[in-house]
Amino acid sequence: MLLRMKKPILLTAVGAALFAAGYWAGNSRISADSTDAKPGPVAAAAAARAAEASAKSGGALSEKEVRAFTAGRPFAKGGAKAWLLALATQLGGEHRGIEIEMVDMAQIFMTMDESCASETCDALVELLALFKAGDPALKAINDGDDMAEGAFMLTVFRLSQINPAAALEALRKMPEGIPDEATKLVFSRLAGQSQARAEEMVGTLPEKQRGDALEGIFQTLAGKDPVAALAFAEKYPEQINGYELNRALESMIKRDPQQGMAAAVKISGKAPDSEAVRHAFNTWLEKDQNAAMAWAGQHTGPEQDAVQSLLIEKRTESDPAGAMQDFARLEQTATNKADMESAAAAIASQLAEKDPASAQAWIATLTDGPHKDRASGRLADIWIREDPAAASEWIKNLPANGVRDTAAQRLAETISRRDPAAAFEWAGSIRDEDRRREAVENVMEVWRQQDPEAAKAAEASAGQSSVPTAGDK
């Protein structure tokens, strides 16, 4: 149990050290005068450890019972590798108090001087390479590779505090397997010093690390100035997305909805999808539905199709018939049918819940494209759940295209546990090679657990006669 807990304990220690260094201070604070504060697990472990030692010594802790803390340089010059190995061996053993020792370790790394941190980085790169090569002495250290990864993250962050150029050099040497957060942490720190300098440094990194570096810069900007963060995101729409971007948009929408939507429109116009404008609009709807709907009704220009699709999706809740009419008009003029996917799925859901046949008839009127596939998938989900036999007949009679592939994949997923043999046939009938391979493997994974012999026989039969295609159904 202790070994399984070491990695999360180590990551907690890393987080605690970074918090102490001020990295998270702008985003997470705890009131100092809280009357309900309870000791965390580290404090509780320390208290228990102290009480045990006190009892053994007759009520007072001796100097030998207190772990020494060395700041600045914990080893002589040239001794980083030996020190790290000794530390890993000590922490890799089965003993009590591991949480406290790991927090102590994090403290030491976060107070190293520059030459010590640089030497430690080089030693960790060497040790991690030996771990990867299977060095038997290193493999014998319990969780040694996990501890080395955590130590590298701490050390490179420490370098970013005192010598950004040295931190960049360490990132360029970063071994495979180090979490992406190492790059994000360094560039978040650098952006706090100078956004322009941090952006300039991104260009010196290997291509695969640049996205993480840009996200680190964005995180720092978002914590200080959402307007500046969103302006930054406009410059790098494909790299800055997801949770952090949505948080910045939420902050701006709450402060200035018009400005927030304008930023979201710009970002979505350059990004692969319209997720930014969708999230911003939904945030505004929760804040002021009337104002959000009025803005959407008047919006023209970039992302107009995505905005109109959002309006249709909202209208579907109260007026499905009207939403269908609006959708038909938009389908004739939209330049990007992918922007209509959510609205198509919303209409299909409303129709299918009442009468799957009416949803089937409506979907048949749509032009081919991602919006039609999405609507078909939603119908399949609902119809298969309510009446799998009728759904099977519908899917069987569909033409061999993306709509049928989507529906067949959904059916195979749904019935795989109760009828894996039939699910296997449906998965094999998918035309698209990649989707067919994925669906077949998902079914086989379930089937192998239920009846390994039958699954093996089905695989052998499919291998001899080839997997059935849509034309065989």
How many strand elements? 0
| C-alpha end-to-end distance | 51 Å
Percent range of helical residues: over 70%
Which sequence of SSEs, written as H and E, runs from N to C?
HHHHHHHHHHHHHHHHHHHHHHHHHH
- Quote the beta fraction: under 5%
Give average pLDDT, whole number: 79
What's the story with the biggest beta sheet?
none
Helix-strand category: mainly alpha
The radius of gyration is: 29 Å
Q: Shape from CA axes?
A: flat
Count of discrete alpha- or pi-helical segments spanning 4 or more residues: 26
As residue ranges, the low-confidence spans are 1-9, 16-67, 464-473
What can you tell me about this protein's structure?
The chain is mostly helical and 473 residues long. It has helices at residues 2-20, 41-56, 80-91, 98-109, 114-133, 136-139, 144-162, 164-172, 181-193, 195-202, 207-224, 226-235, 243-255, 257-270, 275-287, 289-298, 304-316, 320-333, 341-354, 356-364, 370-386, 388-396, 402-415, 420-428, 433-450, 452-465.
